[in-house]
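Sample log: Bifunctional NAD(P)H-hydrate repair enzyme.
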Amino acid sequence: MIPIHGQPILTAAQMRAAEEAAAPTPDAMYALMERAGAGVAEAVRRLSAGAEALILCGPGNNGGDGYVAARILREQGHPVRLAAASEPKSDLARRARAGWDGPVERLADADPAPVLVDALFGTGLARSLDEGLTAPLHRLADAARLRLAVDLPSGVATDDGAVPSEPPRFDVTLALGALKPAHLLQPAARYMGELRLLDIGVPAPSRTRALARPTLPEPGPDSHKFTRGLVCVVSGEMPGAAELAATAAAHAGAGYVLLLGAEASAPHAIVRRPWSLEALSVRKPGAVVIGPGLGREDKSIWIPRLSSVLATPYPVVLDGDALRHLSNPHSFRGPTILTPHAGEFDHLFGLGQGSKIDRARAAAERSGATIVFKGADTVIASPHGDAIVAPEASAWLSTAGTGDVLAGACGAMLAAGLDPLAAAEAAVWLHGRAARRLGPAFLADDLAEGLSACR
Ligand SMILES: NC(=O)C1=CN([C@@H]2O[C@H](COP(=O)(O)OP(=O)(O)OC[C@H]3O[C@@H](n4cnc5c(N)ncnc54)[C@H](OP(=O)(O)O)[C@@H]3O)[C@@H](O)[C@H]2O)[C@@H](O)CC1
Ligand SMILES: Nc1ncnc2c1ncn2[C@@H]1O[C@H](COP(=O)(O)OP(=O)(O)O)[C@@H](O)[C@H]1O
Ligand SMILES: [K+]
């Protein structure tokens, strides 16, 4: 079982194509199912401490994995029972079924077991499940001590993370061969429990992957404050938000943070000047952050301030109110990161089509900017077609000001010389790690300060 960080994410069709390329004959395809089933059996043995497992098998290849796992567990002397709602429909599943010589119980009246394995439906779920399937699945899951989903919890939509039928909450989900969008996208992601990847020997290249631990830029003997990265944060109507972004930029590792348009206050390491374009340009910032607390009311002040920043050649992070003032569509030529939450994203790009990953990728391609589409399932997309999905870091991030902190961290990473995609990934990773370390009910101020300890 492999940790998911940095691993490729494939849609159902991409996964099918990868499997067909890796296994061009029925025997080779069946060998993949044997590997998947063996991995499931091994996970059950490791996690169950010898307790009886009940494996629920569906009509397709997800069910096939279940028959293989049941056979292997039985061969190894592990207590196992199997229940199905119908006979297998696919050739592979029929072949796997033929290898199981134990009884097949009826799903509707199967007795519970301490370990429940859901091999009902995986990437082939085509519509919502009927009551005859969901009721026993929930009944048996409620009675189990450990719930394990094979590939995906039955009831979630693979490609967009929608939940056409609510599954039980699983303790462990074993993604087979590669991650799928539903493993990380909400609302499906909340049903996964601990997510583990099982290598079944299928190369799975993809331009979409899970967030990875970045290599953060480190100062060296030749570094001085300006080579570390100079971040300029532009303040506005609500200076607290820009203060948070500036503090975050400093704690994320910037060598020099210049806050324009805010009164002097702590932290004293942040240099403060009245707003002017000259003050912004004098030190040629490595990144300009504008938007946190900029203001929406007095458009005659804030829109010209935003326009003058956008006319400079410096890399820019646009957040909050700056996103509200942008006209749509907008074409950015220099290194640009936009950090919209769902409301700002809809305002800028509309509802669009497809999954959150598809929408972020289309917005990045259209705008020429790297998009950080925030939420419990933050998606980062570059205008060149790459996308990165972050697993939920901490639900306690849902508090005012944490987005300002993220914008500041993005600025620090851009100013340190990372390209926008790498800068956004590093900032989202650092932000999530700091949030997890802080535990419950932290303030955005704590989060900004907590970034340094997480580098
Ligand atoms: N080589 C491989 O291919 C490998 C595949 N692997 C495994 O295969 C899984 C994908 O297999 P899959 O494509 O057979 O899909 P699966 O999730 O079993 O469901 C399809 C079946 O369910 C049915 N059905 C769908 N929705 C339904 C509903 N709401 N209510 C009732 N029925 C419904 C559908 O019937 P139909 O829509 O045709 O009526 C069909 O019979 C993948 O997740 C992984 O676990 C691994 O073994 C590695 C090798
Ligand atoms: N339920 C959640 N789980 C994980 N992260 C969340 C959740 N809600 C919000 N976040 C994260 O918290 C931050 C909130 O940003 P934003 O909505 O812009 O807040 P603000 O404008 O108050 O700073 C984003 O980084 C977002 O991804
Ligand atoms: K399943």
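Observation: The mean pLDDT is 96.
Observation: The pocket of potassium ion (ligand 3) is lined by residues 62, 118-122, 149-152, 154 (CB under 6 Å).
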